């Protein structure tokens, strides 16, 4: 739902989305889903081109890259089951790619099992909590 409005916004500024927007995926499954969605959108639309589509990269592939706007899809639901996103180095790479706008898409990142509540939270969870404390996290249904 966001992409058409984002494309229009960048077109009005005479800019190309692929030069200014990056989607970083924590997991290759999410990357493939985004790429499939982009291919479908291009196949079914005469007025979109690859220049209108954001770059889609994994966390590791995004190292050394920057964009004005970065959307990080952590595909995270629970902070005690985050897989390799628990790696502070990878989280640092993901959250430092944006020059101006950084969005995180994911679940609540709350502890699922009370027995795990003593675990040290991952860097991404700490960052989300810090942003939430400043009123910069929003839930959308």
Automatic annotation (TrEMBL):
The keyword Magnesium does not apply. Signal peptide: none annotated. Residues 6-107 form the DNA2/NAM7 helicase-like C-terminal domain. Keywords: ATP-binding, Helicase, Hydrolase, Nucleotide-binding. It comes from Friedmanniomyces simplex. Pfam families: AAA_12 (PF13087). InterPro entries: Coronavir_polyprotein_1ab, DNA2/NAM7-like_C, P-loop_NTPase. This is DNA2/NAM7 helicase-like C-terminal domain-containing protein. GO terms for molecular function: 5'-3' DNA helicase activity; ATP binding; hydrolase activity.
